[in-house]
Amino acid sequence: MTTTERPIVAPRHVLGDEQRVLRTRRGWSLRYHRRTAIVVGVLALALALLLVAALMLGDYVVSPAALIDTLRGQAPDRRTEFFVLGRRLPRALVAMTVGACLAVAGAIFQGLTRNPLASPDVVGVSSGAAVGAVLVMLVLEGSVDQAAIGAAVGAIVVAAVIVLLTWRSGLHGVQLILTGIALSVIAMAIVDYVLSQVFVASATTAQTWLVGSLQGRSWSDLIPALIALALITPLLIWKSADARVMALGDGIAIGLGVRTTRARWLLLVAATLLVAVAVATAGPISFVALVAPHIARSLTKTPSFAASALVGAMLLLVSDLIALYAFPAPLPAGAVTITAGGAFFLWLLWREGRTRA
Q1: d(CA 274, CA 296)
Q2: Any idea what the Cα angle at residue 317 is, between residues 94 and 77, rounded to 5°?
Q3: Which of 141, 204, 228, 254 could share a disulfide with 277, CB 3.0–4.6 Å?
C-alpha cells in the first residue's frame, strides 16, 4: 500500500469501543468489529494447527519435515504422499467445509427466528435431506453418490414447504419453528417406514449414512462442495450486515433502512443451500449447526458468519479425529457430534430455563 493509501482509523468516540473503520484516500472503506476480528484470527490459527495435526497423526505418523516436503510436492516416499495427499488432506478439508456450511446455516436460522434453539436439525431441513437420500437409496435403488442428489432435493423441498406455510407471517420465529418441527416429525416417520419395508442389509447401509460420516471422502467429494460454497459466499457477504441488524429486531432494522422481508428470504435460501451441500457431502451430521453459532457468539459477543464458520469447521474436524482414533474401531463422525451435541443441547435448555425464570 502506498503512502497515499494510508488507512485512516475512525475516531473511537464516533463508532464505539469495538467498531472501527479503515478508509483509503481513494474512497475504499472497511468497517469491522475489533473483538470479532481478533477472535476470527485466533480461530483461523487454531484451525490451521488442527489441520496440521490431522495430516500428521494416525496409524502412520508423518514427521513435520516430511509433511512440509509433501505439501511442497517433494514427498519423501509414495506412502507418505498417499496418506497425506490421497487420504488425510481431502478428508480433513471435507470436514472443515461441511462443518463451516452447517455452522453458517445454523447462525442464519437462529438469527432469522431469534431463537437460540433453532437450527436446520430442528426446523426440519436436515430431516428433509434424509428423506430424499433414503428414497433414492432404498426406493429408487440408487448409489450413495446419487443419494447426495436426493438429499439436496429433499432439503430444498422442505424449505420450500416451510416458506409456503409461513408466507403470511413473514418467516417469524414461533410459527417457523413449529412448522419446522412438524415437518421434521413427518420426514422422520417417512424414513422409519421406508427402513421397515426393505431388507436388513439395505436398511443398515442407509442407517449408516443417516448418522453422517466422512469415511472415504476424497477430492471428488470436496470440489463440488467448494464450488457450491464459493457461489453462496458472495450472497452471505452481501447480507451479513443486514443479518446483524435484524438480530436486534425488525423495528430497529426497518428504522435503519434494512428491507427485512427481502433480506430474510435471501438468507433462508442461502441457509437451505448450505445445508443441502453439507448433507449431500457427508450425510445429516447433527448438532454442529446448533452448537457452533453459540460458541462463536460467546466469543465475539456479536453475530458473525466468519466466526461461526471457523468454529463449525473446528468442531467437525475434531469430532472426526476423535471418531477415528479415540475408540478401538473407527466410528462415524456423526456419532461423536450427536453425543457431544446432545449434552450441549441439554445445557442450553437448562440455561434458557434459568434465563426465563
Answers
A1: 18
A2: 70
A3: 228
